[in-house]
Amino acid sequence: MKLISSLFLILSYLNYISAQEIKSNFACEKPEERKDLPFSIDTSKHMCRKDIEDKKEGWYTTGLPLLNSDPNEGFGYGLGMFVFQNGFKSDPLFEYTPYRTKVFLQLFNTTKNAQYHQLSFDLPFFLNSKWRLRTDFYQTITPTTLYFGIGESSMNSLWYYTKNQPGAEIVNNANYSEQEQNLQYMKPGSNESPIRIHNSVQSGFSERDSFRTTDTLYNRYHIEMPQVAMSTERSFWDGRIRLVSGLRGGKNIIKTFDGKWVDAKDPLLDSFPINSSGKAPNDKTRLTEDWEANKILGYYGGYVNTLRLGIVFDTRDFEPDPNRGVFWEATFEKASKHFGSDFNFQKYFIHSKFFYSPFPNLFHKLVLASRFGFIVSSGDVPFFEYRNMWGTEGNISGLGGLRILRGYKQDRFIGRSMGFGNLEIRWKFFQFRLGDELFALNLVPFFDFGRVWDDEHKLGLIGYNYSKGLGFRIAWNQSTIIMIDYAISREDRQLFVNFNHSF
Predict the structure, then answer these.
(1) DSSP code of 55?
(2) What is the Cα–Cα distance from 75 to 492, expressed in whole angstroms?
(3) Do the domain assignments include residue 75?
(4) CB 287 within 8 A of CB 218
(5) Domain of 271?
(6) What is the tens place of the pLDDT at every residue in 464-499?
């Protein structure tokens, strides 16, 4: 807790310094303060005059068909849709909040049966009060979830035996696709190798030349997560401070691929017309190996129900796409068998975001954006929970993937203690209207970094992994951000198409 307290003080000081610089340098023209507010709101929350003029009134809808192609999950298709109620300019709170009601619906499926369905509600200044309500419903099925181990060992570079043959040349510092391709080759099985026969996993077969297995799904498992999360927030200190409380409940259904018959390649004759490529049983997965070695909990899944508490300091002028301001939060999440959870654990998370416009007289919108986060998990934490970091504005998942370390696969690095950062330059270079719809185009170069520790007391500035890339963002009626990011790391190259800024 001493470490958490120290980081709290450091981040608070950085927030103060950043806020002072922003206040003195940003030349946003603001209208006269409203005299009819139902309660006092800090001037930092007042939107710029130009943004207020562009803001849409009343109810409106934005959305897109979702299309994606991924070798792990197949071809994906679905729909993402927002429904907003902004209120009207006569509403005194119109100038201080991006919307009065937001509803988000996503329905998404892939040809390999990955499913990502979500229904969310967000109601700031509920009934013109200082309260904010959020509710999220999720149904997630990920049949090819990646798992590279827990803790600092997951930071090791990828490696493989050439064509997956034990004793063959070891290739270190491999990229993701090379490792995946080589794990698909058949290899000699052992008497511990599993085989799935009529939905029953068997082992103990004698070792002989004709017995072949593969590691095609070595780094994978299947997880299903029906889940609901609810929170309430109360504003203080003219809206700059929010106290947050909430609940999360859900079930985690885990399936492994040990012994499953999967596609595999002949290591000798794969390139010839006549070969023995075909189906082979998948050998033990990394998840099973770690469970048998007593490295993880939660191998069979289970219920996770948590109590959530948080505090937020927020001076951003426009939450979905800030020009200026700082955001700082500290959250605590507790899972207990007293709440119906199958596990007892707790998480401590601190998270800061900074937004600064250095040249307001030269660019209508050029924002330097950054964020930093650190989490410590303790207790009987199931392996699938290490990746989950609760922020009051939404869950953040693992190091790697859409939001953090974008050049690495989702959840590439997870562990007891995790630290990360993102640096972005957001430049709006063009704005136009199509009918009543307002669009703004942005270029966003970015740089990400992060790492995990087995012991939070060894927190330091070395040993991080990095990724970089370029993003293209489309702001649709200000509150809907369409994100297209291309990221590169030493292991991979990835393209993401989704909603919202990365932070």
Answers:
(1) P
(2) 19
(3) yes
(4) no
(5) 158-219+266-281
(6) 999 999 999 999 999 999 999 999 999 999 998 889
